[in-house]
User: What shape does this take?
Amino acid sequence: MTIEFATRYRRRSHIPPEPGRPYFIEKDMGDRAHLFTDMFTIYAGGEQTENTFNFFTCEGPKGDIIPAHSHPETYEVFYITDGAVRLFVEDLEGEQYEKLLTAGDFGFVPKNCPHAYRIERHHSRIVGVAAGPGGTFERFFENLGTPTDERGLPRTPYIPDPRKFGTVPQEYDVTFLPDHQWRTGS
Assistant: This one.
């Protein structure tokens, strides 16, 4: 049995709303959100870690590239537990990298580096960790997307209201780069 808490984000959460409390979360029972075709599950965030890091998963089907973006104050980790994900990263000098990551592979994106990813196999899962001096961005997913109690991928893609793109990303240290071009070939 897992304890439930009320937080400023949700009426029901298995994540305590303040730091300093140990807790445990059963598989897939974190704070879930649907965004496009993917499901994001948050297990730890800024409130629990005094804004030092977050821990979340992203699951999705094979699909389109997630738009190029950067996190000016946040470092991000991609660890693949299932399937395959192609990670695109550009360093601060403009050199671009592309790598197909499969189960057990790891990718690191420094703060302020443009990056994107594409899920290459159905039912792929990314374990993500983000940390940095600017705090954490895990609540971006449910504020741009939609919170859900459902387990699994969205039955239909959740497409955010276009007006959200003007406010939500900046609030969570996400800068979309709509004109960014990947020269890596894939």
